[in-house]
Amino acid sequence: QVQLVESGGGSVQPGGSLRLSCVESGDTFSNYAMAWYRQAPGKEREFVASISWGGKDTYYADSVKGRFTIARDNGKNTMEIQMNSLKVEDTAVYYCAADRYRSGSYLVPGFWGQGTQVTVSS
After folding, report:
1. What is the DSSP string of 28-74?
2. Distance between CA atoms of 40 and 56, rounded to whole angstroms?
């Protein structure tokens, strides 16, 4: 059974940066395309970014393009997202997700982490 554990959330001022990490266990990490989603209070969960099985292809929501960078290390079973130029509207719980069969805009997560809180406030 795949398990995903996020870390790295916290509070930061607008314009600041945070790096979130997701560690996978329970299966071969490279078998899964990976993604980050987020859910703000009172809103539906939304896609943030995804990365293909080998890390070659990445895909971003328009709202984070140019500010966030997703990456993975299959040797360490880890995925990260570097978030720069953070805005108040980036405040949300961020979730790590995995899909064995699809990536990019077609990704449909079959596994989720428990989430990590990111708060951007002055």
Report:
1. -GGGSEEEEEEE-TTS--EEEEEE-TTS--EEE-TTTTTTEEEEEET
2. 29
Phi-psi region of 26 (alpha: psi -120 to 50; beta: other; left: phi over 0): left
* Contact predicate 97/34, CB 8 Å: yes
Instruction: Give the pLDDT score at 38.
Output: 98
What is the pLDDT of the chain when averaged over all its residues?
Answer: 96
Using left for φ > 0, alpha for ψ between -120 and 50, and beta otherwise, residue 101 falls in alpha
10 Å Cβ neighbour count for 78? 15
Task: Retrieve residue 84's tokens.
Answer: 């720069």
Instruction: Give the C-alpha separation, 62 to 66, whole Å.
Output: 9
